[in-house]
Each structure stands twice: as C-alpha cells, then as structure tokens.
User: Fold this.
Amino acid sequence: MPAHNPPLPVMPGFPGNKGIWAGITCEFVEFTVMFAIYFIARAHFPEAFQQGAERLSRVAGTVITLIMVTSSFLVAASVNALRNQRRSQAVLALSTALVVALGYPVAKALEFSWNLAHGIDGGAGIFFTVYYYLTFNHLVHASWGILGMIWVLIRLAKGAYSAEEHAGLEALGSYWHATDLVWLVIFPLFYVIN
Amino acid sequence: MGPREHYSELLVTWLVLVGLTLASLGLGQWFHGASWLPVLVAALVWIKSFLVARRFIEANLAHPYVARLVAIFIVIAPAALVLTAFFGPTIARWASL
Assistant:
C-alpha cells in the first residue's frame, strides 16, 4: 500500500501580482536611498533641519497626509466590497478614492506656489533641497498611482474584475498603499520634527 | 471559506490614522526641542505604517517575501530617526568623504 503523503501547505500569494511587487521593491529601495540622503544631511546640518520645518506649510503636509490615508482606506474598501460581491460599492469606493487622490497634486501645486511666494526654492538651503528632492519624487510616484487608479476604475466599471478574479484591483491597492507608506515617513521628517 | 468581511476594521484603522496624524501635528510645538521627541515621532511613524501594512496591504496574510519586505521598510526610517537624534555627530563623521 503506498504511503499516504499529507498535502503540502499552500504558500500565501502576492497581493495583486508578482510584477507589482517587483515595482514596489524598486520604489522602496529608491526611497530608502533618498531617506539615507536625508539622514546624512540631517546629521551634518542639524540646525538647518531644526529650523527648516518651521518655514514649511504644516497645513499642506497635513492635508496631503489625510488625502493619502483616506484614499488608501477607500481603495482597501473597494477591494473588500468586490471580494464580497458588491460591485457597485466597489466602483463607488474606488471612484471616491480617485477624487480624493486627485486632491494631492492640487495641494502640492498650491504648496509649491506658497513656498515660492515665501522665498523657499531649491536653493534656499540644504533642508529645502532635500525637501524638494524627496517630495517631488513622491508626487511623481503618486501620479503614476493616480493614472493606474483611472485605468483600474474603468476596467472595474466595465466588469473586468469579479469576486474571484481581481488581481488588477489588488495590484493597484498594493502600489497605492506602498506610496502611502512612503508619505507617512516623509510627513514627520519635513513637517513635524523641528 | 468565503472572503472575510472587514469593512469595520478598515474604518477603525482609517480613524486611528487620522487621529494619529492630527495628534502628531501638535508634537513639534508642544515638545519643541525635547530630546525624546524623535523617539515619540519614530514610534508614531512605525505604528501608522504598521497599521497600513497590516490592515490595508494585509502583509501578514501575504507571501513571506511581501511580509518581510514591508516589515523591513517600515522600520528603516524610524530607526534612522532615533539613531540620527542620538548619534548624529558620529553618523556625520562616518558619512564624510
């Protein structure tokens, strides 16, 4: 009689797909390098970093943080709704996430123009050079996420995803949450600590 | 087993993230110059990141690669913040050309 082999445990999968996690790994490595630049600059010029946060608009930083966590929540709610076969709620949640997320480039544009009106440009000192370097890069990543959100929303509304197959929606969610994680670090580094 | 309904968990997570964000706003003003402020800020950053990783990404339910990648990334900046606050001159010396 052949020996009975117990079934192998099933390895949990990648949220979305492997491709998006290759991209997220690159994003994390890229921002880890940028954070290293921030901390090395901070170690060399502690006074500049202590005074820099006082000159930035804390309101802008807070509004962007609220936009990121709220849109992240709404994307997660959309995934949850679709998994539970509530397509219309999934579409509504993702549409709302997109509207909220679009507030980010608007808030950033207003913040940058406010900065320039107060004499804060890339040459205003080491703190502001690093600030523009990091926050502009994050804006670029968030813009890619917004474009992805539009694409996934169109596909979701056209019925391309189901409760059983929604890897595209999960991939978008993973990327947007990862971009949210990066901002949760940027916010205190530039707007809170002084 | 069907998909798990966890909207209320997501909602509570969002409310906590909003609350911690608003609370952190006052930290720089209330505790201006306090030596332990970076430790508190680092702890808040890690807690908020952990919540996003656990509740939104569901990293704990994902492939070990995802779980480890996210766990490592969310600890890097808080650790660097504390190290820079207490060992800034040493780091500056090591990072000098």
